[in-house]
């Protein structure tokens, strides 16, 4: 069976067509600037790339063009749309409404649209728009919703509750939901496979460090805690997100800066993090360069990021009562030896010993960067969220 994985943003739509027998990516691409002038689709298939420049006023036109590209004479990989067995849609937030991957029915669509938008106002409406467009264009094809939050549904109450009035948690669903669940799930399973152990035997801390960053405690194959909270703003500071901050400081800052609630949340999401600290960039490559050139604020941003990530690793080792493995993944986790070194430094007391020379190497696939005798294995594992979405969709069917 071939599964189409769709990740829709407010003005973008990324996709992959995956053959589930071999798990090979047959085609992939992305539409940019939906609803804006200059919209285009960059599509890959058959080892070739093609750019389609076309006015795409909405997601329906975009998905029609994607289906056209999948059947294109030159780069096409299927003869007819019927070859697509199902579509898996990435959805950021599920609230408490969906605990696992869910087949789309009119009822499910209604719940998605009526209940979850306010939990992820930037992401979930976009996913629903992409979903509606696919339903319109491929009405007979089964659709699945795969939630970033599902892997975190196993967190115990003591981990996901905030210290607010219990009645308010019940009434409004305000609690920790986490994010990047598909990635944490994928890399923790890959780590167990690599180490030749059953997931049940391992205590793993997975560090998904990218433009958005989250750290999870995975005990016996199940997530028991994670650093992102009610929304992906919580946890460590990120590219442009503040990470956790005292709620009173938020009110104080809003008053001083004359910002209303919505503007304050936008400020914390878009203007803070390492970009706000450095005043230079949200990209860790720029921070590395800045720090090397003696820019103290770039160095501070990196120090803060490493320090905060390290604190989560330590906290989660304590939460699980032990630690067998640390996994680094995503843009920064996979590509920044400096961050991996900065995070592991000082964790020797937990049995973490990094092989600095190995850590500095660039290796494709899974890369073990801990020293030979290290009690705690440190692994770099490339994430593959699309594959998890495709697997979950196939399993559901
Ligand atoms: P992601 O959100 O997983 O796509 O990660 C994107 C981020 O990864 C970028 O914003 C960069 O900060 C970071 N990144 C990518 N390549 C490198 C690299 N070679 N060294 C350090 N950071 C990198």
Give an account of the 3D structure.
With 397 residues, the chain is of the alpha/beta class. It has two domains: 146 residues, Nucleotidyltransferase, domain 5 (2-Layer Sandwich); 184 residues, Nucleotidyltransferase, domain 5 (2-Layer Sandwich). It has 15 helices and 14 strands. The protein has an eight-stranded mixed β-sheet with strand order 5-4-3-2-1-6-8-7, with helices on both faces. The chain is globular. The mean pLDDT is 96. It binds adenosine monophosphate. Adenosine monophosphate binds next to helix 10 and helix 12.
Offer a quick outline of the entry:
The chain has 397 residues and is an alpha/beta fold. Helix content is 39%, strand content 20%.
Question: What is the beta-strand fraction?
Answer: 15-25%
Largest sheet: 8 strands, mixed
Question: How would you sum up the global shape?
Answer: globular
As laid out across the biggest beta sheet, the strand order is 5-4-3-2-1-6-8-7
- From the N-terminal CA to the C-terminal CA, the straight-line distance is 10 Å
- Residue ranges: pLDDT <50 for 5 or more in a row? none
String of helices and strands: EEEEEHEEHHEHHHEEEHHHHHEHHHEEH
Total helical elements: 15
**Number of domains in the coordinates?**
2
Output the structural class. Answer: alpha/beta
Helix content: 25-40%
Tell me the radius of gyration. Answer: 21 Å
Under CATH, the homologous superfamily of the largest domain reads: ATPase, nucleotide binding domain
Class of the largest domain in CATH?
Answer: Alpha Beta
Set out the fold topology.
Elements lengths: L1 E7 L4 E7 L4 E9 L7 E6 L2 E6 L5 H12 L13 E8 L10 E2 L2 H10 L8 H14 L5 E5 L9 H4 L5 H7 L8 H15 L7 E7 L3 E7 L2 E5 L20 H11 L3 H10 L2 H6 L5 H9 L3 H25 L4 E5 H6 L1 H8 L11 H5 L6 E2 L8 E4 L4 H12 L1
Parallel strand pairs: 1-6, 6-8, 9-12, 12-14
Antiparallel strand pairs: 1-2, 2-3, 3-4, 4-5, 7-8, 9-10, 10-11, 13-14
Helix pairs in contact: 1-3, 10-11, 11-13
Bound molecules: adenosine monophosphate.
């Amino acid at each position: 069976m071939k599964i189409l994985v769709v990740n829709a943003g407010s003005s973008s739509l990324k996709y992959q067509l995956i053959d589930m027998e071999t798990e090979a990516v047959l085609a992939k691409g992305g539409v940019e600037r939906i609803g804006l002038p200059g919209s285009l689709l960059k599509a890959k298939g058959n080892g070739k790339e093609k750019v389609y420049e076309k006015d795409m006023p909405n997601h329906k036109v975009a998905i029609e063009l994607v289906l056209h590209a999948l059947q294109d004479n030159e780069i096409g990989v299927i003869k007819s749309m019927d070859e697509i067995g199902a579509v898996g849609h990435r959805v950021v937030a599920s609230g408490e409404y969906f605990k696992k991957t869910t087949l789309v029915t009119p009822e499910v669509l209604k719940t998605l649209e009526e209940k979850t938008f306010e939990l992820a106002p930037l992401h979930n409406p976009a996913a629903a728009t992409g979903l509606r467009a696919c339903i319109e264009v491929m009405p007979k094809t089964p659709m699945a919703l795969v939630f970033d939050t599902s892997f975190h549904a196993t967190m115990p109450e003591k981990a996901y509750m905030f210290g607010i009035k219990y009645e308010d948690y019940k009434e409004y669903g305000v609690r920790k939901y986490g994010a990047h669940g598909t990635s944490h799930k994928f890399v923790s399973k890959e780590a167990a496979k690599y180490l030749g152990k059953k997931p049940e035997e391992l205590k793993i801390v997975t560090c998904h460090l990218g433009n958005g960053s989250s750290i999870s405690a995975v005990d016996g194959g199940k997530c028991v805690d994670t650093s992102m909270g009610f929304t992906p703003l919580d946890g460590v500071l990120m590219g442009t997100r503040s990470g956790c901050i005292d709620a009173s400081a938020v009110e104080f800052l809003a008053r001083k800066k004359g910002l209303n609630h919505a503007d304050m949340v936008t400020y914390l999401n878009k203007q803070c993090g390492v970009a706000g600290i450095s005043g230079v960039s949200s990209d860790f490559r720029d921070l590395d360069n800045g720090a090397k050139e003696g820019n103290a604020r770039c160095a501070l941003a990196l120090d803060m990021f490493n320090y905060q990530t390290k604190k989560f690793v330590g906290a989660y080792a304590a939460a699980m009562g032990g630690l067998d493995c640390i996994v680094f993944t995503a843009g920064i986790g996979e590509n920044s030896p400096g961050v991996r070194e900065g995070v592991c430094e000082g964790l020797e007391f937990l049995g973490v010993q990094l092989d600095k020379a190995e850590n500095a190497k660039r290796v494709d696939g899974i890369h073990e960067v801990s020293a030979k005798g290290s009690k705690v294995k440190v692994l770099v594992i490339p994430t593959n969220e699309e594959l998890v979405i495709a697997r979950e969709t196939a399993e559901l069917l």
